[in-house]
Amino acid sequence: MSGPYTAQLTKQKDDGSFGTVLQVIYTLRSGGAGIYTIPPVTVIPRLSREIPGPLADPLSSRELFIPILQSDEKHLNYPLILGWEDVPASLYVGQSTALVLLMNNMEEIDLPETVSFPSPGGAILENTEGLGEIGFRGLDHLTLFNVPMDTWMLTPSREGTLTLQAANVSIAGVRRSTSRQSIKILPLPEAIRDSGALGDFNISLDLSARNIVPGSSLSLYIRIEGKGNLNYLNMPEPVFPEGLNPSVRETQELTAVPDGFEGFREKVYTLRPEVLNNYEITIPAYSWLNPQNGRVETRSESHLKFSVAGNLAVEGESSSFSFSLMPLNDSRNARGWTLYRNPFFYLLLLPGLIFLTFILTIKRIRPALLSVFFFSILFLSASDSIPEIPEWIGEAQIQFDKGAYPEALELYRENASGWNNNGTYLFNRAVLSFLSGEQSHGVLYLRRAMALMPMNHQIHESLGIMEDLMGLENQHRARFFVHPDILLLTFLLSLNATLISLAYCFLKKSSWPVILFSILLPLSLLSGGELFRTAWTLNRPLAVLEKRSVVKKIPEAIGSDWLSLPSAASVEYKKEVGEYILINTSYGLEGWVLKDNLLLLKERSHP
Q: Is the dihedral of CA 244, 247, 250, 251 positive or negative?
């Protein structure tokens, strides 16, 4: 810009007279296309040079915008400028950063026809989605937009100078390019050379079981979650004892953010030790650098221990416990009573009501007693027959005694039909599943057996042992209940007796029916209330996690993680939305887990 140059001009006023105008001229020469802003010009009028001080308020012009177009932009009102958004001046080796290519000064939001950007040498370039936002600014009475053309995640792999070559975009009939840009790549601090981890992370370790039998399996979970270069860092490498050859699989869930990726990476090592021994797995110390505060954080070395024994046993204060199958003769008596769920069985309330009706209407005892006897025989004769013990149960017991738990479990799977409501079948299948390495199914079938046999002490004790061996805490409490069918029979008998005693109060004017009625009525109310409470508790919508699961705050894959629950953890499910189910943990936290990760207790069949 050069100037100012002044010149006097003579102009005719509106009234026809002539006046002299002082014109101030500045000369502008643009160095390139763009929108140039001329700030307001302020003029302070004076009457003459001899009289100091202003005689009027200062006069200011408005801000002026001057668009300078390129030769191919004759059809446009404003020049299109292509550039990068917030490229850092320096990065560490392995530090991920987002590259957002912006087209500025667009009068309308439009998509590019073509985008090309050569991958720089010495770096990993990943095309990403979800990065960059549309920006805008007001200009005169218009709105101009800054629109992302494309986004990438850049992760340098060696120190030195990284050069970003020109990116090219074709849009709105023009072709634009960026200039070259350099980024200084710094070497990693010595403390994190092995991990290469840069970001804000949290590391968790977990063993699916601490005590197993030969031939069964357990899993080691190593999980890194947080925000940073999750796509680049090296996971901790555990040191396994000699003779253990684990299989490994890795899962990840990553979402691109400006500072790298947010989410988690998890490695699962599956072990199947055959030799009886006490084992120890060492996970070396792991360090990472947080570029936001420049601090190096370290998770110290960890040692996870587990045992392989001939039969799992847990010592108590006064006695020991080992898993075993229920005796065969218990199979006859372990039918899953579900009378309290059958509405027709509540018709057994009719005998007492009929007796009371007969007494109030015809006042004769014999017809009333005959009706009570007839209805009682009619409904009690509808009970199911008890099945015979099949041969495969004995074969499964032989395989169990030999320690061939998977073979015994297969026999139970093949012969599941017709045994779904048998508490002994479910208990034995739970034990065999647990000893065969299917710990989640072991807990599942044990809880199903408990719903059918809530008074069985062996089931309650076995569930507590299983959850202790798996390190499960804060599980939904498995309470010891009187069987609801026993409560139902107590309720039916006491209520019928209450109605009969009430009938005798009308028939005979004596004190003993009144005394009997006053005793039986509270018993009826108490047994009926306890029946309702027990039935409600046993029919709560509970589930068991089939595997270690991430609980999300919203039912979306992109939702942030709330917490992580181990396999076989018991939860209460609330509602279903798409692929997710809302669950409630025993300690009150709610969140969403994938539907496929849940094993529901209330299923009509047990595959």
A: negative
Q: Which residues contact 45 (CB under 8 A, 6 or more apart)?
A: 54, 55, 56, 59
- Rounded to whole angstroms, the Cα distance separating 86 from 255 reads 20
For the record, the structure tokens of 268 come out as: 């699962």
**DSSP-based helix, strand, coil % in the chain, nearest 5:** 25, 35, 40
Q: Are 298 and 249 in contact (CB under 8 A)?
A: no
Q: Is the whole-model pTM more than 0.70?
A: no
Helix or strand or coil: residue 540?
A: coil
Instruction: Return the closest-CA partner of residue 229 out of 185, 265, 268.
Output: 265
Task: Check whether the bond before 4 is cis (ω within 30° of 0).
Answer: yes
User: Secondary structure of 258-322 in the HEC alphabet?
Assistant: CCEEEEEEEEEEEECCCCCEEEEEEECCEEEEECCCCEEEEECCEEEEEEECCCCEEECCCCEEE
Burial degree of 138 (CB within 10 A; 0-12, 13-18, 19+): exposed
**What gap in Å lies between CA 373 and CA 493, rounded to an integer?**
13
Rg, the chain, Cα only: 40
- Kindly state the tokens that stand for 143: 């709105």
Neighbours of 91 (CB within 10 A): 22
Cα–Cα distance measured from residue 286 to residue 263, given in angstroms and rounded to the nearest whole number: 18
Closest CA to 226 of 133, 154, 289: 289
pLDDT digits (tens, 9 = 90+) for 295-351: 999 999 999 998 887 555 554 433 445 678 886 554 444 445 556 566 666 666 666
